[in-house]
Amino acid sequence: MSTLRLRGGRIVDPANGIDGDLGDLCVRDGRIVELPAAEAVDHEYDVSGMVVMAGGIDLHSHIGGGKVNLARMLLPEDHRINRRSDNPLELASAGCCTPGTLATGYRYAEMGYTAAFEPAMAVSNARHAHLEMGDTPILDHGAYVMLGNEEVFLRMLAEGQDVERVRDYVGWAINATRAMGVKVVNPGGISAFKFNQRKLDVDQDHVHWRITPRQVVQTLARAVHELGVPHPLHIHASNLGVPGNVDSTLATMDALEGLPGHLTHLQFHSYGTEGSRKFSSAARRLAEEVNARPNISIDVGQIIFGQTVTASGDTMRQHANADLGSPRKWIGADIECDAGCGVVPFRYREQSYVNALQWAIGLELFLLVDDPWRVVLTTDHPNGGPFTSYPHLIRLLMDKSFRDEQLAKLHPEVAANAELREIRRELSLYEIAIMTRAAPARLLGLTDRGQLGVGAAADIAVYREDADREAMFTTPEYVFKDGALVARRGRIEATPVGGTHYVEPEFDRGIERSLARYSEAHLALSYRHATISRDELCSCANGGALLPCRLHGRAERPA
Amino acid sequence: MTATLAPVGPAASGQTWTCPFCPLLCDGYTLDASRPALVDSACPTAAAALAHFGAAPLAATALVGGRVGGQVVDAEQALAAAADILAASRQPLFAGLATDVAGMRALYRLANDCGAILDHVRGDALMHSTRALQDRGVFYTTLAEIRNRADLVLCLGTNPAAHYPEFFRRCAPAADAVQGREIVFLGARAAAGVAGLEGCSTEEIPLAGDLFDTVALLGARLAGRRVGEVPPVLEALVTRMQAARYTVIVWESASLPAHGALIAEGIQRLVNTLNRSTRAAAFCCGGGDGGYTANQVLTWLSGLPLRSGVHARGLVHEPLRYATDRLLADGAVDALLWVSSFGPELVPPATALPRVVLGHPGLGARLAPREGQDGGQGATVFIPVSTPGIGAAGHLFRADGGVVVPLAPIHDDPLPTVAEVAAALCARLARRRAIAGGAQ
User: For residue B329, what pLDDT is reported?
Assistant: First the structure.
């Protein structure tokens, strides 16, 4: 048994309604407990003058799997410039846009984050994704399986099969891949590109299967909801990056028909066609819609100026954008009749009108959506920028004068005209704590994470107060993972193996007979390898804890 | 390659099995574990590899010695001798690297402890595809996509069945595929009687010059550029590629000549040009002996692919300079850790350097005896290891990159895995550091 006490900190814990109360926080065996003030503990930390929050949770960060590793291979120049850490606890691991998994774990933990979720795990690439996440030290992790472009699913939809049967398939896929949720990427569009279709609007037919993205979104959202998966359908909408895509984004929200849906990297889907350049911000229009629709949550996918690489399952849109990439090289793939992949390097430039406006649109979304519980702070790492830029982003959101300074550096038309100029809102520490911890935990159904109540896991970040919020959030004084000190003032102190979050929805196993037949006739992997067992997950995940997540409307299941 | 690969008999007795011996990782055939041999595939690669195993685990002992013959030692003595070699080395090379995901994970940790450079036994071939990817990118496809979509398969400079015998069966058209499939062998022989070609039309077209010339010519014509004399068959091929719904260009990295990365780049240009109007993708046959696995694991852990070194100043990636042969020839390394867990045939390169060999039990007898001192120049430590998919579970990457296939053992093996040996060496080196630190 080991205990610790953080004495005299300013606790910011929105999940429990605590906003800056001074107090002690105690931990026993990795969980938060109440201890009498007089009770001796193994370790006591004086954190007076510091802000105590739950560990950060990134619900959308491309940290593991095929396309991330391809991005690493594509950009050796991102990794060549490196220096070996003098910390013997750190194994060598390099990279800025797409660091190695080891560096990913170290840099997240140093920044006060204790969990990250890979949002785009292809069915056929699930083992690979879990292997990489298992080699991402310290962080807990999980992944959303990409559905909505597999030929087997589109075929079921085209054949008009019962919703119950499609739901069984979705339940099977989540279990087979050990996923935490379901993501749909360019609904139907990845498949359509394989049939040489170059554009797919929400109500347009897939050239081969004659189904629409609206049907795909509706079907998946319903299945995910009915299966009791806590995280709403995670949606990368149609027409990513296309001027005027605000219409298809709104149509995608409509397709949900009131069911929960999480629209991811909304910045890339918030473009109008006004002005002489036919490219404008539709952030206000979308923010108003989000405000009016309580079933919708979003993350932003803020862009950060500089070099990065975009890694997406959206082959259709990445192929279209490949000519805009910098440097001019890219990777694409058609994958196993279930997915695609496009990796395009990008350099976001302050003097580019389009990039400057994208930057402003992201911030406008953060600041115009009223309810912080429905907006999660992301850069869609690495697509908008690397996760290491979160402290900079937090300062932009908390500090109007800093924001204005940055805006003034941008393309003059954007600097002069962006609606962002007029937005005075500065987010509070409480709101930042919601967007980076409490809200993602709630949206994922993690009841004992993202908060500091008694019984919660002791994932804790302690920040030294600093008016420069970027400096404050870059280097927390202490970071604890399950009660163990893992980072102190930017230096790694321990590298425990993180756990895997996943859900195990129930489904009718009768579906497996037809899936096995389909697999035999069409796929290239034996059906006996279609499902990752718990034991295999454990070996992929390097022996980390298995953390099955409670389903909605069901009692907790034993691990 | 004329052997028929049609099923040779019903799977009367046997067990489902995943073959680790080529990067197609066939998991749909049956193994008779009593021999062991495949029941429903005549794959010569699998048959040859399985001949190195028995129905029961192979007995093997570690060997230590620089002197002729080597001396049988127990596992602890072997580990101590191996740790001696690594601890004394100022710049070790970890090569061969024919192992699985777990093996590479553990070897990377050991490489950090020793400051090693890592290269694979198929490094030259891997670098053709890796360097082209780093400079231009790639557009690739996978086996199931080929099954369901490809109406034109262009085998460029190779018949993939020669080295990947089950290739055409693994990507044979789905039974309900709407279109037929043409298979064109450009600069390669179309072997008859190969399973998986039923219902496909096949054709041989000669190269126009060498492979470099031919790929350049195709590229120019696909892009609509006029170039001198184009053989009519190539001109017709260009037209067919433009008309096809899904062209797959199959190539083999190990069959390319020097500067093969330029051909790989040319193939990428062909695919990119086609993708502006129709659909196409490339499929590279390569990555055997755990090559793709080693490359993937090293890349995700370190951020850099094979032919990288973990140095005190940081990670260094040198796709040419860190080739095993060149490092040995240049005298740039002073010890060799050779890993070859899939069979006895990948022997370490000739060198007088101290060497630690983790290998198939049969590899020990194949190590060339040599003169030398224990622990010093010429020292050899051989530690027999289990083979993933025979004596141990494991994971390997399939040739198409993103699919990881689990391997299950066919019997319990008393031999340790590569991962276990690497972890034991890490522990020994850590103990030595602790003792050395305590003594100061």
Answer: 97
Low-confidence stretches of chain A (pLDDT < 70) are 553-559
Distance CA A191, CA A151 (A): 7
Are B313 and A128 an interchain contact pair (Cβ–Cβ within 8 Å)?
no
Q: B71: domain range?
A: 62-122+289-439
A163 domain residue, yes or no: yes
What's the CATH number where A400 sits? 3.20.20
Contacts of B315 in chain A (CB under 8 A): 79-80, 82, 84, 92-94
Query: Is the CB of A154 inside 8 Å of chain B's CB atoms?
Result: no
Instruction: Name which of A529, A533, A542 to mutate to probe chain B: the one with the most chain B Cβ atoms within 10 A of its Cβ.
Output: A529
User: Does residue B416 belong to any structural domain of this protein?
Assistant: yes
Q: Confirm if A241 and A191 have CB atoms less than 8 A apart.
A: no
The token pair at B205 is: 């077209």
CB contact under 8 A, A91 and B304: no
Q: What is the pLDDT of residues B312-321, one digit of tens each?
A: 999 999 999 9
Pair (B276, B298) in one structural domain: no
- β-bridge pairing B117-118 and B137-141: unpaired
Residue position matching structure tokens 């054709």: B203
Distances (CA, A) of A535 to A330, A548, B315: 36, 13, 34
Task: Tell whether B9 is covered by a domain.
Answer: no
Please state, in angstroms and rounded to a whole number, the distance separating the CA atoms of residues A372 and A379: 16
Domain span holding position A281: 56-444
Q: How many CA atoms lie within 13 A of B277 on its CB side?
A: 11
**Residues pairing with B127 in the sheet:** none
Query: How many domains is chain A built from?
Result: 1
Structural domain tally of chain B?
Answer: 3
Residues B312, A196: C-beta atoms closer than 8 Å:
no
Q: Do B406 and A127 touch (CB under 8 A)?
A: yes
Please check whether residue B55 lies inside any domain of the structure.
no
In this prediction, residue A257 carries a pLDDT of 98
Listed by number, the residues of chain B in 375-394 with a beta carbon closer than 8 Å to a beta carbon of chain A are: 393
Same domain? For B313 and B378 the reply is yes
Q: Which residues contact B220 (CB under 8 A, 6 or more apart)?
A: B227
Out of A84, A103, A196, the one facing B303 most closely (by C-beta) is A103
Contacts of A305 (CB under 8 A, 6+ apart): A348, A349, A350, A355, A359, A385
Where residue B9 falls among pLDDT bands split at 50, 70, 90?
Answer: very low
Q: Which of B285, B302, B320 marks a domain boundary?
A: B285
**Are B274 and B295 members of one domain?**
no
Query: Using a CB-CB distance cutoff of 8 angstroms, which residues of chain B are in contact with residue A83?
Result: 313-314
CA B121 to chain centre: 8
Q: Kindly provide the ipTM of the predicted complex, given to two decimals.
A: 0.97
**Is A463 domain-assigned?**
no
Query: Do B334 and B428 share a domain, yes or no?
Result: yes
* Inter-chain residue contact A334 with B142, CB threshold 8 Å: yes
Instruction: Tell me if A16 is assigned to some domain.
Output: no
Give a yes or no: residue B348 inside a domain.
yes
Residues B97 and B153 in one domain: no
Domain assignment of residue A488, yes or no: no
Cis peptide before A382 (omega within 30 of 0): yes
Give tens-digit pLDDT for A118-160. Answer: 999 999 999 999 999 999 999 999 999 999 999 999 999 999 9
Which of A80, A131, A542 lies at the smallest CB-CB distance from B404?
A131
pLDDT of the residue at B5? 40
Nearest-Å Rg of the Cα atoms of chain B is 23
Q: Which domain CATH number covers B435?
A: 3.40.50.740
Coil/strand/helix, residue B144: helix
Asked whether residue B136 falls in the same domain as residue B260, the answer is yes
Task: Give the number of residues written for chain B.
Answer: 440
- Of the residues B285, B305, B329, the one at which a domain ends: B285
* Least reliable range by pLDDT among A277-281, A487-491, B178-182, B222-226: B178-182
